[in-house]
Design goal:
single chain, 268 residues, mainly beta, Alpha-Beta Plaits, 2 domains, 6-stranded mixed β-sheet, 4-stranded mixed β-sheet, 3 helices, disordered N terminus
Amino acid sequence: MQKHIGKFIRPLSLLSAFLFLLAGCSKDAVDPGTLVDVPLTFNVQMIEKLDTSDRRLQFRVSTIEFQDCLNETIDYNMSQNYSNILLSLNEILEPETCEEGNAPAVSQIQLEQLINNKYLVSINLKNTVENVGELEVFSDRYRLQLETTNGIQILNPELNRVPENVIWGSFAYRNEDHSFLAEDFQNELEIITTFENFPVGDYGHFYVINNQNIFVADQSPEELSFRQNFLFHYDGDFEDIQGILSEFRNTYQNEIHILLMDDKGRSW
């Protein structure tokens, strides 16, 4: 049974911290002969923004440390041309109205349309600490390789593109006695969908561990502690999907929670 996994990485393990102390220094921009410590500040995650008409690669940037408001963001500058991508992460921005709570500051940084090519990438901190490397775009995946990662950590150096005509999600239920409901729902989907062998890896919106084990970010109520994930190829009429969802939701209401998304960025 899959457990809830948070969206953001918390403080480093002792081993990671030790490795960081060995490698986490960079040349000072003012005095090239001086070495300064660069604290690990930001997570950088690649993810596709899915839409009915277009797809774009995004960098989802979040702070390592939790902030004092739920809606703090990160100020940045970005420029992009046919062969270069330059991103500068500047500072954490406090909102005019604070939503009380503790969470990382987050910004979604969308890139312009990319073609299958190699791009020179620079991810910098206030245009002072530089991390240079390469983003390689393939028809089925993205690969980000940086020579240094001073002040940042790349959560997914390789991102698989979400295939066309797929649906994925989770069926959450209250206790083990309701496991048959998840099985019934899965059986209903299997009748109208096609099972495929999806390559193992990170797809941003879900993670394929193997064909029998799919991770989907948990968005179900906390009291529904049991869940079953699914991933299928589907190119049929979505009225059929809506019919199955309505049947289960109307019948079992608060006893279950169904998350279902598709490759067009739609939630059902």
